[in-house]
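Incident log, entry 3
Record: Metal-dependent hydrolase (226 residues)
Problem: checksum mismatch between cached and fresh output.
Input:
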Amino acid sequence: MRVTYYGHSCFSILAGSQELLFDPYISPNPLAKNIDIDGITADYVFASHAHFDHITDLLRIAKNTGAKAVGGWELYNWFNSNGLSNTFPINPGGESEFGFGKVKCFAAVHSSSFEDGSYGGVPCGYAFATSAGNFYYSGDTALTLDMELVSKWNKMDFAVMPIGDVLTMGVKDAIAACQMIGVKKMIGVHYDTFGFIKLDHKKAINDFREANLELILMGIGESLDL
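Fresh output:
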């Protein structure tokens, strides 16, 4: 699987021939100023929750690419009311088959609201089982024992999880999450974008190494194969 990082919690994964994009927040992020939003390709766009730093560019990218927009029920209604027609709803506990494989939706411990303050639905994460490999994206979340359910559904090859602390898990809890899920590799997201989630990269990588885990901190615009 080829992973490309677009900053904050936005990344894409090429699973076979299908491009899966997650939580697109690019245009307002000064750290991602060199990313050409209109050059991004996607077959699916997954939203973990309704906060602005996860959906700001979703409608634009979905309209540009024709990608299927996937999210919880409230997000699904928001997609449809904002001109998208290629949409699909999924809430925690739900599982569905897509062109690239299976997706299972898991609960996340966080908050969720749209910019006008209206309710954004239950925050969630997603586990993927594809012919190219399996992975878990937690979305914004605290450490939760529900993460043990991910490994009961399927064995994951790696995880993508927040590591910036304050609003989500920090390093210590992300290590515990990896151990619950049963992965040795984690791509860290949701750090450095704002002043209160600055990350000590060297210490974080070393803390993971001491736990016999690999933390991958990608550069914005970087791609790698996992």
